[in-house]
């Protein structure tokens, strides 16, 4: 016997329109700035994070490639 279930309703942020989600996110960012809990990147931190991401990507890319063919 087949049971038909109703489609799941969207909940939380998924139920909001993209514009409303953007508004809520902006409010959170503004509140964090006012409370002093927001993180502000220094130039050095941003460079280090970018370098780390690039190395991870490169490492992942080379580990997925097939081994070189020996002649």
Description:
The chain is an all-alpha fold. It has a domain at 17-64. 56% of the residues lie in helices and 0% in strands. It is built from two helices and no strands. It is flat. The mean pLDDT is 83.
List the helices and strands and how they pair.
Elements (H helix, E strand, L loop, with lengths): L17 H18 L7 H22 L7
Helix percentage range: 55-70%
Low-confidence stretches: none
Total helical elements: 2
Backbone CA Rg: 23 Å
List SSEs in N-to-C order.
Answer: HH
- Which geometry do the CA atoms define? flat
Q: How many angstroms separate the termini?
A: 61 Å
SS-based class:
mainly alpha
- The number of E-state strands comes to 0
Report strand %: under 5%
Q: Can you summarize the main beta sheet?
A: none
Averaging pLDDT over every residue, what do you get? 83
Characterize this entry briefly.
56% of the residues lie in helices and 0% in strands. It is mainly α and 71 residues long.
Features of this protein?
mainly alpha; single chain; 2 helices
